[in-house]
Amino acid sequence: MTDRVIIAGGGIAGFAMALTLHQIGVPCLVVEQVETIRPMGVGINLQPNAIRELHDLGFSEADLDDIGVPAREWALVGMNGQEIYAEPRGTYAGYHWPQYAAHRGKFQMMLYHRFRERAGDENIRLGSKVTGYEITPDGLVTAVVETPDGTIRETARLLIGADGIHSAIRAQMHPDQAPIHWGGAMLWRGTSLAKPVRTGSSFIGLGTHEHRMVIYPISAPDPDTGLALINWIAEVTYDDVDTADRSGWFTRVEIEDFIHHFEDWTYDWLDVPALIRGADAAYENPMIDRDPVPTWVDGPVALMGDAAHPMYPTGSNGASQAIIDARVIGAAFLEHGVGPAALAAYDEQLCQPISEVVLRNRGAGPFGLLNMVNDRCGGVFENIDEVIPATERAEFMARYKSAAGFARDTLNAAAPTIVSGARVSAL
Questions:
Q1: Which H helix or E strand runs over 45?
Q2: Rounded Cα gap, residues 337 and 46, in angstroms
Q3: N- to C-terminal Cα distance for the chain?
Q4: Hey, where are the domains in the chain?
Q5: Element (DSSP H or E) covering residue 135
Q6: Does residue 125 contact residue 267 with C-beta atoms inside 8 Å?
Q7: β-strand partners of 288
């Protein structure tokens, strides 16, 4: 079946791509290395630009309510518990679409099940991994696939690498790429049942750039108990970044291994130690990314999602950008046909600006306000306006949202990425 597109990876990026291809009439095969897809991970945020695309893929707000909760507010709070910056989010900020705080694993499963319903299990191959590719003389691509029965080769029109930060396709495309970059920040993540604070659906960054908590609900409160599932991230930045190999992901650890960093973080509105201890399990993650590469495309092969632009989670837009990648590739297929010209157009549109977002996030992204507070007053203040004027804080956030692609007025006025009913005319 050389007319189809092979997608390496069955995560959020891979299934967003698969659903987009199915929508526009392009056959595809998703190849995923795990034998059974399960809901892994904790909380993520889906920005309004991504929610717009999910609606255009046929997902309703009822579907999204099953896997998350609309975010009302984004707020930064200093070490003394005083507010640094707060703004409404999603429809509460005038966007035409909400922002959702969601359970990552449940969201991935929603995409997976919807693709199975629409395209069938025959277009998903589990327990297999794309380990490389060969471009054929006639411009097609042969994917090298490791299966339980050995190595096979499958030729396709295009290959899309949605295989994450450890992408084998990226490694072949850029054999001299730098190693995974760890800047010294260690994250401990978990979820706990607790009562939401502030608006009841607030994303809260608390502390300093080097020592902070991120807290937000990923479910609506239970009507009887008032408790919601709260996603929390505890973070410490170390000066010595060479103490260990920090390229792994989601290592389970004991809460007592790290809670001493946050033991005295108690406020009249939040008890951080109690929140952390309320988790069933905690996972350690280094905050890692990769240096940007000059292109995401090699002829009939393209990278997307974390394979293209793994980024620090400081901007809460990694999953959202993966969805945008899929939609931009789909739109390029409609305009240029299903071939290398479309992939080149996608690369031209997104590679450079999103690489800049990767570096912006490495510089703390929107949490850079915490750096500014720390630099100007050591993190302790009585009146934030005397430290950073309100206009300067607002301008800082506006620049980030514009760079990340979800500036409100621009997004609200934008035409659909893919017009309803659009189909590729011929393969």
A1: strand 43-46
A2: 29
A3: 12
A4: 183-289
A5: strand 129-135
A6: no
A7: 182
In angstroms, rounded to a whole number, what is the distance separating the alpha carbons of residues 209 and 149? 48
DSSP code, position 17: H
pLDDT over 90 at 123, yes or no:
yes
Average of per-residue pLDDT across 163-191? 94
**What does residue 332 show for φ and ψ, rounded to 5 degrees?**
-65, -35
Those residues whose C-beta lies under 8 Å from the C-beta of residue 220, and which sit 6 or more positions away, are 65, 69, 228
The answer on pLDDT for 363 being more than 70 is no
Q: Do the beta carbons of residue 231 and residue 217 sit within 8 Å?
A: yes
- Pull the structure tokens for residue 199: 């608006």
Whether the model clears a pTM of 0.90, i.e. scores above it, the answer is yes
Which has the closest alpha carbon to 209: 79, 385, 44, 383? Answer: 79
Q: Treating both helix axes as pointing N-terminal to C-terminal, what angle do 368-377 and 390-404 enclose, rounded to 10 degrees? A: 150
Residues with Cβ within 8 Å of residue 45, at least 6 apart in sequence: 71, 99, 100, 101, 102, 203, 216, 316, 317, 319, 320
- H-assigned helices in 66-186: 104-119, 168-173
Beta strands in 238-381 (DSSP E): 251-253, 282-289, 297-298, 301-303
Does position 31 have pLDDT exceeding 90, yes or no?
Answer: yes
Strand order in the sheet with 297-298: 124-126, 28-32, 5-8, 158-161, 301-303, 297-298
- CATH architecture for segment(s) 183-289: 2-Layer Sandwich (3.30)
* Amino acid in the structure at residue 90: G
Read off the DSSP letter of residue 14: H
3-state DSSP assignment of residue 247: coil
**pLDDT tens for residues 40-72?**
878 999 999 999 999 999 999 999 999 999 999
